[in-house]
Amino acid sequence: MQSEMEIMFPGGKKVDAYYNGFLVKTDQPVGEGGEASAPEPYTLFLASIGTCVGIYVKSFCDHRGIPTDRVRVVQRMRYDVDLRRLAQVEILVHVPPEFPKKYRAAIARAAGQCAVKRAMFDPPEFLVETRVASVENRA
Fold first, then answer.
1. For 85-114, what is each residue's pLDDT tens digit?
2. Distance (Å, whole) CA 40 – CA 25
3. Which pairs from 115-124 meet CB under 8 Å and 24+ separation?
4. What's 39-121's CATH class?
5. Are 36 and 50 in contact (CB under 8 A)?
6. How many CB atoms lie within 10 A of CB 46?
7. How far apart are the first and last CA of the chain?
8. How far apart are CA 49 and CA 83, in angstroms?
9. Cα separations (Å) of 2 from 7, 44, 137?
10. What pTM does this model have?
11. What is the pLDDT of residue 89?
12. I need a surface site. Which of 15, 44, 113, 126 has the fewest CB within 10 A?
């Protein structure tokens, strides 16, 4: 199965992605020459981890009839300044006192099944190349 996402450059430091009928906007901070009108791509990457975990937590609770109005997920990131990289992502699933004790460890395991996290542990192959667009392929 193959899918395609188109990346466009609407101006300034903005870079947008069009995928499956959705527009995802990004920008750079003012200090980097952008307008700070949208999250940076790296912020979206981090948010994709947290929101993916959230989907797994929500699904876990929904399948057991557990309300999620007082459940929240907090994601903490630790950076290695010397290596200039993300060193650790900590996911905390906060549950209220009445959350069933028998599910407390299980919800953490469910959160750990996040597809974005799994993709990081078994990364895809990246192929990057340049192609010259033909006149008929230009929009």
1. 999 999 999 999 999 999 999 999 999 999
2. 9
3. 115/52, 116/48, 116/49, 116/52, 117/49, 117/52, 117/53
4. alpha beta
5. no
6. 16
7. 25
8. 21
9. 16, 22, 20
10. 0.86
11. 96
12. 126
